[in-house]
């Protein structure tokens, strides 16, 4: 197993562009890559590009009729009428949609292949993490589900146990749906409660299909959850499950839309807490995953200047075993780049000034606390199915 880290990047991923009024602005990808370069991480992680996913790869997850529809609407965006989920306000058709989506998917599949084969210990595709796309339809700003494709490719290559952890503010519903009946895949999603946020799924009681009971895990958090509660929930559920499952590979999704500045959701965590979970995923990969295999993806994130670039640059640095001091001053050259591209002032430091701490689950449970109630609901729903005490 190689100790090197890969950063999957192709300038073409910025072609994933729903238009100027859509919240998923591809400038977030360009700015992230700019910050990665400003910190010299492109000299620590090996920057590589994989080819776009072809139809045979896309069919590992998606129906051919859907792929054909994406290709058709990509060539003729004006024909999109909402069928297959394309042509909606969330997922408007755009020229080159198939090509850009397949390119992003290809980077995640390439990362999965490299990590599984031992060419790298870790690989990052922050352009990926498009976790809402379903086998037969687009959903939630997502055309092709590169996260599911990365997992599916590892299974095709012979993996028998793959864990997927999703800390985006939205439920990772597309990945859960893809592997609902597959006991080889453990999906864990920590997200804002479905009562208050799209897609309205991800209840603790959703635990997997027949023959795969306990393979789906959902940690629903109350709106307003901050650093301490977010980290408490993660550490109260994830490590024990990974210790029991002992995956041969780990895929994680790090949507930055849990941040308190994000305009589309109601969880209130800092870049510092996001960094803490990224570091925890890295440590869990080395502790519980065979050969430390880890593929890390991006996801949502709509505070495209202040939050996304810092969060995902920390992710790249952690995967490359070259963590950035949160107190470090953001390079002036990058801030100039931010202003040139967006006419906004970029953040000055890689921290929000927080030092995240949390109370461990074994330190006690408060029956009157809503967060603790929801954590316990997840543990009660899933842990006994996996032979663990709730």
From TrEMBL:
Ranges for domain Histone deacetylase: 22-317
Gene3D superfamilies: Histone deacetylase domain
Protein's pathway: Ketone degradation; acetoin degradation
GO BP of this protein: acetoin catabolic process; epigenetic regulation of gene expression
Keywords, comma-separated and alphabetical: Acetoin catabolism
Keyword presence, Lipid metabolism: no
Keyword Zinc-finger listed: no
Pfam families: Hist_deacetyl (PF00850)
GO molecular function: histone deacetylase activity
InterPro entries in the record: AcuC, HDACs, His_deacetylse_dom, His_deacetylse_dom_sf, Ureohydrolase_dom_sf
PANTHER family: HISTONE DEACETYLASE HDAC1, HISTONE DEACETYLASE HDAC1-RELATED
Family, per entry: Belongs to the histone deacetylase family.
Designated name of the protein: Acetoin utilization protein AcuC
Taxon lineage: Bacteria, Bacillati, Actinomycetota, Actinomycetes, Kitasatosporales
């Amino acid at each position: 197993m190689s100790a090197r880290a890969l950063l999957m990047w192709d300038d073409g991923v910025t072609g994933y562009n729903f238009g100027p009024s859509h919240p998923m602005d591809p400038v977030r990808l360009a700015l992230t890559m700019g910050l990665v370069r400003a910190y010299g991480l492109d000299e620590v992680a090996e920057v590589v590009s994989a080819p776009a996913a072809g139809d045979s790869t896309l069919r590992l997850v998606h129906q051919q009729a859907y792929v054909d529809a994406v290709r058709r609407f990509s060539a003729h965006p004006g024909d999109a009428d909402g069928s297959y989920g394309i042509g909606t306000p969330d997922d408007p058709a755009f020229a080159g949609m198939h090509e850009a989506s397949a390119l992003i998917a290809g980077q995640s599949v390439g990362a999965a292949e490299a990590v599984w084969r031992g060419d790298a210990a870790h690989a990052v595709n922050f352009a990926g993490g498009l976790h809402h796309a379903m086998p037969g339809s687009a959903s939630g700003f997502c055309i092709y589900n590169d996260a599911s494709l990365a997992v599916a490719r590892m299974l095709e290559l012979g993996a028998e146990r793959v864990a997927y952890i999703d800390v985006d503010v939205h439920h990772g519903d597309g990945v859960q749906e893809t592997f609902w009946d597959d006991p080889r895949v453990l999906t864990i999603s920590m997200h804002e409660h479905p009562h208050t946020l799209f897609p309205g799924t991800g209840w603790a009681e959703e635990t997997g299909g027949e023959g795969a009971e306990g393979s789906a895990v959902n940690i629903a958090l109350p709106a307003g959850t901050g650093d301490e509660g977010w980290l408490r929930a993660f550490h109260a559920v994830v490590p024990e499950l990974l210790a029991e499952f002992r995956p041969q590979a780990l895929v994680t999704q790090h949507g930055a839309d849990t941040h308190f500045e994000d305009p589309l959701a109601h969880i209130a965590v800092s870049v510092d807490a996001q960094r803490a979970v990224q570091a925890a995923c890295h440590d869990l990969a080395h502790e519980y995953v065979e050969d430390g295999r880890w593929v890390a993806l991006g996801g949502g994130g709509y505070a495209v200047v202040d939050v996304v670039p810092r969060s995902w640059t920390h992710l790249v640095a952690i995967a490359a075993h070259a963590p950035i001091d949160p107190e470090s001053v953001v390079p002036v050259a990058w801030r100039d780049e931010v202003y040139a591209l967006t006419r906004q002032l970029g953040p000055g430091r890689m921290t929000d000034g927080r030092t995240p701490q949390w109370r461990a689950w074994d330190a006690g449970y408060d029956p009157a606390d809503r967060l603790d109630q929801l954590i316990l609901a997840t543990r009660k729903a899933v842990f006994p199915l996996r032979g663990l005490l709730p």
